[in-house]
Design a protein that fits this description.
Layout: H1 3-18, H2 25-31, H3 39-73, E1 89-101, E2 108-114, H4 133-136, E3 140-156, E4 163-170, E5 190-195, E6 203-211, H5 212-216, E7 229-230, E8 241-248, E9 257-272
């Protein structure tokens, strides 16, 4: 028997065997044998294996290229965050304080705060900087307050008498005497309200936005060194005063006024600190 006839007989045997219903383990094995697959299926399988290999090589190549790009972008990274900061920055700094305004046994009393003195708005106490100033001092040398807004809530703690509350914004200190404050009631930068005794309409909230150029009456504060302060260590020489005066309508103070004060100062930071490693 020639070689060609032998191959033909063997192939015919496999095809016929594949048509037989598998009733034994040998039959099941034969049914799953690669020999029973058609040439078309064998050809498609080879193509699939080859394409999978090509795709896997392509992915490895792309991943490798990506890693090279990442490494290249690491060159020239800035040495510090300060290198990304602009030469000037506008920031609104907040300040909050609980108030207990009282001078028992006298007609009235006052307190004052310096709204453009971010480093220390209450020098009588000290160490009460606007929130965040110390952090920005790492990037800028000077600050200059452009404007500020406040929200002050006062609650009368006097049980038998109303109190007269006055809020005054000035560029000079008005003095500490409550007797002088009623003269400012008609001032454009003054607010006042009569607050009833405790148990009645015993509270009032004052709100105001103040542009310093309008309050001072000139824009020279934008360039004058007296209106700037060091972020890390000082207040400006020229100051803006926010004063609160409380006086009783009859008799003398006993319990005074309670409340809270919140100030937001719109500030220009400048003279960027050049940081090097």
């Amino acid at each position: 028997m020639s070689e060609k006839e032998a191959i033909k007989r063997c192939t015919g045997f496999v095809v016929q065997f594949s048509k037989v219903k598998a009733t034994s383990v040998k039959g099941l094995v034969a049914m799953k044998s690669p020999l029973v697959q058609s040439p078309e299926k064998l050809h498609l399988g080879a193509l699939h294996a080859q394409s999978s290999k090509i795709l896997s090589l392509g992915k490895r190549k792309r991943r490798g290229k990506g890693r090279d790009n990442v490494d290249n972008h690491r060159v020239g990274v800035a040495s510090s965050l300060g290198d990304f900061m602009p030469d000037e920055m506008l920031v609104e700094f907040p300040y909050a304080e609980y108030l207990a305004i009282n001078n028992a046994g006298v007609f009235g009393t006052t307190i004052t705060r310096q709204c453009n003195a971010l480093y220390d708005p209450d020098p009588a106490v000290g160490g009460s900087s606007f929130v965040g100033l110390a952090n920005w001092a790492n990037f800028y040398s000077y600050y200059r307050v452009i404007s500020y807004r406040y929200e002050i809530e006062l609650v009368n703690a006097e049980t038998t008498s109303s109190v007269h509350a006055i809020i005054l914004n000035t560029n000079t200190t008005p003095g500490a005497s409550a007797y002088t404050f009623p003269a400012y009631i008609v001032n454009d930068y003054c607010q006042s309200h009569m607050i009833s005794a405790a148990g009645g309409m015993d509270r009032h909230t004052f709100k105001r936005h103040v542009n310093i150029s309008e309050l001072v009456g000139t824009e020279t504060f934008e360039t004058d060194d007296n209106w700037r302060g060091l972020c890390a260590s000082s207040n400006p020489t020229d100051l803006i005063w926010l004063s609160i005066s409380v006086s009783i309508s009859a008799g003398v103070l006993a319990n005074g006024v309670k409340g809270e004060m919140k100030i937001w100062a719109k500030t220009r930071l400048f003279d960027r600190v050049r940081q090097t490693t």
